[in-house]
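User: Here's a chain of 269 residues. Predict its fold as tokens.
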Amino acid sequence: MTVDLPGLSALALTAARHAAALIRDRRSAGRVAVTATKSSPTDAVTAVDTAAERLIRDVIRAARPDDGFLGEEGGVEPGSSGVRWVLDPIDGTVNFVYGIPAYAVSVGVEVGGRCRAGVVLDVVSGAEFSAAEDAGAWFRRAVDAPAEVLVVPEPPELSQCLVATGFGYDVERRTRQATAVARLLPLVRDIRRIGAASLDLCNVAAGRVDAYVEQGLQPWDLAAGGLIAQEAGAVVTGAEGGEPSERLVIACAPALLETFQSAVTACGF
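Assistant: Prediction complete.
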């Protein structure tokens, strides 16, 4: 299927910018009210999540009425074009609720079931990460800043690696993940838990962390950020070298993969 990837990328960025502006405008001072929960009592949804996803869909639908959608808040909307937009209107909702400045708009574009373009926009800083399949990944510090090419740096040895991770909302899964992270911690430089998977993956792309491992990711967590990491030169894989999935996602430089994957497995992820 032939598609205009630059055009899809540009539309993704436009939609993400509109959503980020709405989120910034509607975030009141103090703690934001939680309007619903999903997988557990700690898995929050706010009115702004819902409004931002609705806006993203409206912007895209106005330009491409035949496309489908998969969104964290709005679910599945079938399309007929072979293009599906995978949306996380606020990745890092708990950070958003508490006013911690680490949450993002994530917009991925699937063609034939594979993510081929994507944007992750850091709402507070305004930084933009984007990628298109086989065309590379880019970073802008702000809307008007020049685009910088992202290239994953050569990694240090495992003991000197800074590793990003996250935890699910289910209590049993969190407990298992905490145990695995405790086993991994003595093997690496340190652990970072930012609370937004899309930003973690972009941080691998930007060399801000050396590796990333997490369980429980959904398609909207992974789509755009995973492509950005891959296009910057990272390997994004799953358990035992399989496809990245809810079971496990690993992202790191190719030179680190064998060592890091072995450590992750040994630690019980």
